[in-house]
């Protein structure tokens, strides 16, 4: 791509001199010259054609001198536009003033064209570097805009209306997800299954960022679609696993806890596919980990058999689900928030409403890590059974 040079000088002989000396580069398309005869004319040309790369300007000119032109060029705030100033030999005051105003370089009359050629080449190198940086910055802004859109899309995937079923008084539910990056691989979900049952899910896709977010969306869609027609938690996981094994790329997988709450009886039928065991918070203040079904993560091995277990929630009990971004949250001392801290904090929250439980655990994790960078997605879901 040609370096576009605007020569600004009231001496017409310079136009002939430059076009003759640089004729080979002009012919090859390496240099493209335009000419103005004073600063005002040059400024008009710059406004009409703002893609010049190099301004070669005399300092002493009628109508608008080179220093005034340089000031106007600086106001354009184009770091890829380089000014080379020309002045009479020994005119150090004006040359120094030009350099202080941000001129790239200078040359003196009579112009040494070989020296000028080297100066233009040096300017061209810096211009190319700046344009590359500007292009990369534009690309980065475009990527960031895309990520913001992806973030908004992902947030719309997760249900956020609480209470989700205000007509149902036998339970209360609240959930929250915070991605470590713009988008994440964690998700939660819940949905009615017939009149008497509530399906609820918490999951954590391997990896982070965009790949995890895409697999998260696939996983959520597959699990929800099957759950709405499959009465068994174990068979739901089994069928979901078969499909996700076909969809998995780069050995991605997802850990899932899927439960079905009978809202009339408080009985929860569940399957734990490699996920952190939820915490059962009893009304009396005791807490315990929900026994696992010891099942395989989804998306790793097809033709895997899954199992299910039951637990019964009494009125006032709370089932708290979370991803390992909670227990593995790390402070600046490289200490983990840990399962022990989580159990201790849950013990103090027994009998509280789900929103209070989720908000308080989120707060305690934040207080623990303080200013440390969030390294993993954090997702929490709390269900209180009222009976």
From TrEMBL:
It comes from the Bacteria. Pfam families: Response_reg (PF00072), SpoIIE (PF07228). The modification 4-aspartylphosphate is found at residue 58. InterPro entries: Bact_Sigma-Reg (IPR052016), CheY-like_superfamily (IPR011006), PPM-type-like_dom_sf (IPR036457), PPM-type_phosphatase-like_dom (IPR001932), Sig_transdc_resp-reg_receiver (IPR001789). One of its GO terms (molecular function) is hydrolase activity. It is an enzyme of class 3 (hydrolase). Its EC number is 3.1.3.3. Residues 170-368 form the PPM-type phosphatase domain. This is Sigma-B regulation protein RsbU (Phosphoserine phosphatase). It comes from Parabacteroides faecis.
């Amino acid at each position: 791509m040609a370096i576009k040079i605007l020569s600004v000088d009231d001496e017409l002989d310079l136009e002939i001199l430059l076009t003759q000396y640089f004729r080979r580069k002009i012919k090859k398309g390496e240099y493209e010259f335009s000419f103005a005869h004073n600063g005002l004319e040059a400024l008009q040309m710059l406004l009409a054609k703002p893609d010049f790369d190099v301004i070669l300007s005399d300092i002493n000119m009628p109508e608008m001198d080179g220093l005034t032109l340089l000031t106007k060029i600086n106001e354009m705030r184009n770091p890829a536009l380089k000014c080379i100033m020309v002045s009479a030999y020994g005119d150090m005051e004006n040359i120094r003033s030009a350099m202080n105003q941000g001129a790239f370089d200078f040359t003196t009359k009579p112009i040494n064209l070989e020296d000028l050629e080297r100066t233009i080449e040096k300017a061209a190198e810096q211009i190319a570097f700046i344009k590359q940086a500007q292009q990369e910055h534009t690309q980065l802004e475009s990527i960031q805009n895309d990520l913001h859109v992806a973030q908004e899309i992902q947030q719309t995937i997760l249900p956020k209306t609480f209470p989700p079923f205000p007509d149902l008084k036998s339970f209360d539910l609240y959930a929250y997800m915070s991605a470590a990056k713009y988008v994440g691989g964690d998700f939660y979900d819940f949905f009615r299954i017939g009149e008497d049952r509530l399906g609820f899910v918490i999951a954590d896709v391997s990896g982070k960022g965009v790949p995890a977010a895409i697999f998260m969306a696939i996983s959520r869609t597959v699990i929800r679609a099957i759950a709405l027609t499959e009465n068994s938690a174990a068979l739901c996981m089994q069928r979901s696993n078969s499909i996700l094994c076909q969809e998995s790329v780069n050995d991605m997988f997802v850990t899932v806890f899927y439960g079905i709450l009978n809202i009339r009886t408080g009985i929860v039928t569940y399957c734990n596919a490699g996920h952190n065991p939820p915490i059962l918070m009893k009304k009396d203040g005791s807490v315990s980990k929900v026994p696992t079904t010891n099942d395989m993560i989804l998306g790793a091995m097809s033709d895997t058999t899954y199992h299910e277990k039951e637990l019964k929630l009494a009125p006032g009990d709370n089932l708290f689900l979370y991803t390992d971004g909670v227990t593995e949250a790390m402070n600046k001392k490289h200490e983990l928030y840990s399962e022990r801290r989580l159990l201790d904090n849950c013990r103090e929250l027994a009998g509280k409403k789900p929103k209070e439980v989720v908000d308080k655990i989120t707060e305690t994790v934040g207080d623990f890590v303080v200013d440390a960078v969030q390294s993993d997605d954090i997702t929490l879901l709390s269900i209180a059974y009222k009976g």
